[in-house]
Amino acid sequence: MDIFRNRNFSLMFIGRILTNIGDSLYAVAAMWLVYDLSSSTLYTGLAGFLSIIPKIIQLLSGPIIDRISIRGVLVYSQLIQGIILLIVPIASYFGFLSVGLVLIITPILTTCNTWVYPVQMSALPKILEKRQLTQGNSLFSVAYQGIDVACNAVSGILIGILGAVSIYLWNSIGFFIGAIIFSQLRIKPTARIHSETNSSVKTTTHMNRYFSDLMDGIRLLVRTPLSKLLFGVIIINAAGGATFSVLPMYSDYLGGAGIYGILLMAQALGSLVGALCAPFLKLERIRLGRLYSLAYILSGIAWCLSIYSPWLWVTILVYGLAWFPGGAVNVIINTVVQKGVPQQYLGLIFSATMALSGIALPLGSLIGGTLGIWLNSATVISLCGAAVLLVGLYWSFDKVSRNLPATEHIDEGFFNFSRKSDKSDITGIQA
């Protein structure tokens, strides 16, 4: 491919692969290590919360990214992660490794890694020609999703062979190599006309405006018919977080770390296959409310049934299938927003959607870990599946959701948007 003749892109792509491998392996190893040290879902739920909550920083990164050095962020984020990861094997060697130590470093590592993705995406237009951007974004997306599936598949096996602590050591080495690769980037810095003082003031102004825009986006979103779908998705995301927090204990019951990795692989693969199949299923022809209702009724049923199979391979297969509908409809809802929301409000609506749906994952993780103290892990997973099923049933009976049109019939005139500053209101279709 011609795109790989671009030195900066090739370095960025290789570095991204290393970063994704490290991030995926660490995510599995951290959860398993916390469970191995504590044998408690309360701690795995807390670990899930601490690993997810820093990702909300991505919502705040927009006004800042354009004012910092791309190479500096990429290099130093890798170095910091590499150094912090070394703490775990060192602590294990000298006998002071504890679940508390793992929980302390978890949000620090996630925070460092959270900046990498938006920085890399903002760098692509600076290192590629416009005609190459689609190809570059596609390669980055495939690398991210493909590596996630592959690492989930082998992580459990590696933990079983090497141990979770050894994963931290090898990950550390990978991040140091990533820092060396990123240090070879040669990207021209964005011209800065203003002084540092003016830049700081301008950044603060941008942040204030960003929060104002975010609140505007939330107000715009919750006053449309799509809000019914959004609040249902919040519950579904919370169920996903709760399931994630008890999955190590359930996997231990089924056979150990290897099963944990395979279940995570099935989950990632189900979502990926759903997303890939979405264009071929002609889902845009189905009424949106009915599509979401049917998708998550099927998902909830599979979610519940997956834990009751006497055969392990059926459990893995059905659990993976439970994530297929979500992967498919996520593609559709993005298209709905892009078609039905005026261009000037797209950023507001996407930011608001990420903020509202993203906060459900860490909260769900805490709830699931707490429930796991009193209930066995299989029961918690079953309850999460039941919650997903109930959301799907609610959409099927809710008049507003049921009357939402098919995606192919939605255009920019479907929602009448106006911000508060425009001295008018927002309306949606009436049921």
Automatic annotation (TrEMBL):
Keywords: Cell membrane, Membrane, Transmembrane, Transmembrane helix, Transport
Entry-linked Pfam families: MFS_3
Protein name, as recorded: MFS transporter
SUPFAM superfamilies, alphabetized: MFS general substrate transporter
Species whose genome carries this gene: Paenibacillus anaericanus
Transmembrane segments: 12-35, 41-61, 167-185, 229-251, 257-281, 288-308, 314-333, 345-367, 373-395
Coiled coil: none
Compartmental location: Cell membrane
GO (cellular component) term, any one: plasma membrane
Membrane topology summary: Multi-pass membrane protein
